Automatic annotation (TrEMBL):
ATP-binding among keywords: no
Recorded superkingdom: Bacteria
Keyword presence, Acetylation: no
Entry keyword set: Receptor
Family: Belongs to the UPF0065 (bug) family.
Organism of provenance: Belnapia rosea
InterPro entries (alphabetical): BUG, Bug_dom1
Name of the protein described by the UniProt record: Tripartite-type tricarboxylate transporter, receptor component TctC
Length: 316
């Protein structure tokens, strides 16, 4: 009886706190360094939320361990609406699949708020390789070893390389780098045969002809490269991989707060200025309900675990 009485008292108190939220600045944890794509997007989201709630949203860059430091901090924070995570497909799906002993569980420790943006990645080759299509690239890889670079183990590029290898049955050598810029340099100078990378990082080199795009990994062609086929159009329908970003709160955050944050995020994504900035970053708008983000998190996590196990991918 005593426990039931305490619960009856706690529920109205939580509702009252949710009604008065926010009464002070909100912290938005970006689990990567300043100047990264995640940081840029997080600041767009933070500005939009701040305008809607009438209080500052302070971006807190807590980088380290592939985003797990910042994600773990939010998972362990009070569920009061004052600490949020600008999560990524890496922090919410890939890392839990390839990092044993992770200090958080995406489905247990977070309350989804809203999906923000997404992008497919591009398979690009050096023109001197002498291939013009994905089919020609795979045929060449059957005859001799080919190297495929990425921005690191567990990145979207690495996952795409592994998935393409599993689906096609063609082996290529994955070469992880500490950052994508160094890998692009090696692709340009001929050290690498190919690389899988985000569209904006390839754009100037594709425009100059220094890199030849063979396929993109989305369900549809990328707006930056309307003439480049999807993996499915190029003969590999099972290879669909996207990087994505979304806002999460600690599990247990009151539903009215989540609903308000969701509405503010969706309204911001509909603004012409936000649309233009995301497009400038080579990204597509997502948005949607917390329930839709919860389902995406579940399905992505299951897919990444399956891929990591099949391809024997583990964190360095």
């Amino acid at each position: 009886m005593k426990r039931r009485h305490l619960l009856a008292l706690a529920l109205p108190m939580a509702a009252a706190r949710a009604q008065s939220w926010p009464e002070r600045p909100v912290r938005l944890v970006v689990p990567f360094a300043a100047g990264t794509t995640t940081d840029i997007l997080g600041r767009i989201a933070g500005t939009a939320i701040a305008q809607g709630i009438g209080h500052p949203v302070v971006v807190d860059n807590r980088s380290g361990a592939g985003g797990t430091v910042g994600a773990a901090f939010v998972a362990q924070s009070a569920p009061d609406g004052y600490t949020l995570l600008f999560g990524t497909s890496g922090t919410m799906a890939t890392n839990p699949a390839i990092m044993p002993g992770l200090p958080y569980a995406p489905l247990r420790d977070f309350a989804p708020v809203a999906a923000f943006a997404r992008t497919s990645v591009v398979l690009g080759v050096r023109p001197q390789l002498g291939v013009a299509t994905l089919g020609e690239f795979l045929a060449l890889a059957r005859r001799r070893p080919l190297s495929v670079g990425s921005a690191g183990t567990g990145t979207t590029g690495h996952l795409t390389q592994a998935l393409l290898q599993l689906r096609s049955g063609v082996t290529t050598t994955h070469v992880p780098y500490r950052d994508g810029a160094r890998a692009v340099t090696d692709l340009l100078n001929g050290t690498l045969d190919a690389m899988i990378y985000h569209p904006l990082g390839f754009l100037p080199h594709i425009q100059s002809g220094a890199i030849r795009p063979l396929a993109v990994t989305g369900v549809a062609r990328h707006f930056l490269f309307p003439d480049v086929p999807t993996m499915a159009e190029a003969g590999q329908p099972g290879v669909v991989v996207e990087g994505w970003w979304a806002i999460y709160a600690p599990a247990g955050t009151p539903t009215p707060i989540l609903a308000r944050l969701n509405a503010l995020t969706n309204a911001a994504l509909a603004e012409p200025a936000s649309l233009a900035e995301l497009r400038r970053q080579g990204l597509e708008v997502m948005g949607g309900t917390p329930e839709a983000l919860a389902e995406k998190t579940r399905t992505e996590l299951a897919a990444q675990r399956e891929l990591a196990q099949a391809a024997n991918i583990t964190a360095d």
